[in-house]
Amino acid sequence: MKSYEELSHVLLVKKAQKGSHEALSTLIGQHRRKMLQWANKIVRNSTKAEDIVQDALIQTLRHIGSLEDPEKFLPWLKSIVRNQSLMALRSPGVRRESLVEDKSLDEIRSTFHHNDTDEAFTYTLGSQVLSEVEASIERLGKRERVVIRSHVLEGLSISETAKKLGIKSGSVYTALSRARTKLTNFRFEDELETYISSRRRRGKPYTGGSFHTQYHRYAGAYDTLSSMILIAAGSLGFRKMSLTDVFAATGHAFRFHAANDLGISGPYSYDWTSSVLSGMDNLGLSAKIHGSPRYQLKQPDELTACMEDMYQALEDGIPVISWGLNNAEFGLITGFNDDTKSWVILDTSTSGKKLPYNKLSRNQQPMEWFVVIPQKQRFNGHRRNLIAQILLQAVKNIHGNDMTEASFSVSGTSAYRKWIDSFNRQQSIEPLSVAYNLAVARESRLHSSMYLQKLLSNNIQGDRTLPESSLSAIAHSALLFDRISEKMETITRLFPLPFGADPTAPGPADHSAQLLCRASEEEIEAANALEEAALLLNRKKT
């Protein structure tokens, strides 16, 4: 016998039409993500798309018994989502905080009565789903319950709901927002409870992890992604790897990013996925990634799919890298406990702290879903080609050609120009943001200088990886980055962490603008030298 997950959607539809709750549940589970994509493509709003899908599921429960051709299930389902989406776009006034259709539960339940025995399952299943909705609503606070019942179930407007309950419209919005958050949390909690129960039935361990992992000083960096990659690499046996190696391999040694508002998020405004994948590959590692920058975790099944990979890594003693565990930075998940339903986490500010399973990537605002499962791989590339690859990536970063989304930030020479212009105009910016951005830039240039010096030093000590023809270009770029690092250090003394300094003060601002101008010119010259060195490294031996 095949499991329901192995059946085609045609067979699942036929079984669902004959009353199989599990078949319909499987259909919904298989296609819910598609439904969200269809809805979001029309309304361009992920929150509204979630509402639309919830409404569409009610329509599916009602009418699947009337679907004559099971082969046309997907087009039929898509048409339901499309109609619901268009209705949402046409809805005047304030967007409704819809959980189900704008009718009372009793009214909806009454629509599930059918005389046709082939459709009898609809009443049973519909009642079950609506009972679950009712149960979730009962878990809310008193005000949230009455607001949900009035606005969503009775179909009253925001102002009508406020008048009926004798409260302000703002209080209705607040109650609806809190209810949405709580109901989402309930959904994650319930799904995770089911998932953990299935793990126990499969005899999986309740606890596990690399509990001896620590945040050492040698891994300390403002660039916390590099720090966490270094620690994870150590757990995979790469004990001799240095922080400078990671900075160079990921391209972070040559990055300079700035948010459009020159805010504190600037240093993290790059493509994390590309940086991790290429950096891990350069280091002889690989990685499986869940999520992406600025992607919000919406569905519990996304989390449970990721957890399967996380459990395996942790049981093997490999920590998992994730964003936003305790602060808005990268950290490590070093263990798990199914009894307490919590992860053991570590970052620059905490070690051994517990984080509830359902709060993973839902703990910080904005909620960004990004998890890296490090893996070891056999390195097959030639070291000379690897170095050339790193140098060519450095050239791209210096010129700002590594950007994938330029709408909210700039990179490379454009980032230099943005900061130079800001200092020339003596722009008023949060002092901490100025100090932090410049400290990150100074750190990266220090590692770029150290990496290039290391290449030259290894060659002197007998490592003949670098051809003689490339040494002059690498030495020239190393000298330039050493000068750039010194200029950045001077600027960071003018705007020191943690409190920074006033960027509108003419003296420090003018001096910093001049230093950045020179550093930018030297960096373009260094990029030309690095490109020349990379071409010589890639040239075949004669």
How would you portray this structure in words?
There is one protein chain. With 542 residues, this protein is an alpha+beta fold. It has three domains: 4-201, no CATH class; 205-240 and 285-376, no CATH class; 242-270 and 381-542, no CATH class. It is built from 18 helices and nine strands. The strands form two sheets. Strands 1, 3, 4, 5, 6, 7 and 8 form a seven-stranded antiparallel sheet that branches. Residues 92-129 have low confidence and may be disordered.
Instruction: Give the distance, in angstroms, between the N- and C-terminal Cα atoms.
Output: 63 Å
Pairing-aware structural class of the strands and helices? alpha+beta
Spell the H/E element sequence: HHHHHHHHHEHHEHEHEEEEEHEHHHH
What is the arithmetic mean of pLDDT? 82
Given as residue ranges, the uncertain stretches (5+ residues, pLDDT < 50) are 92-129
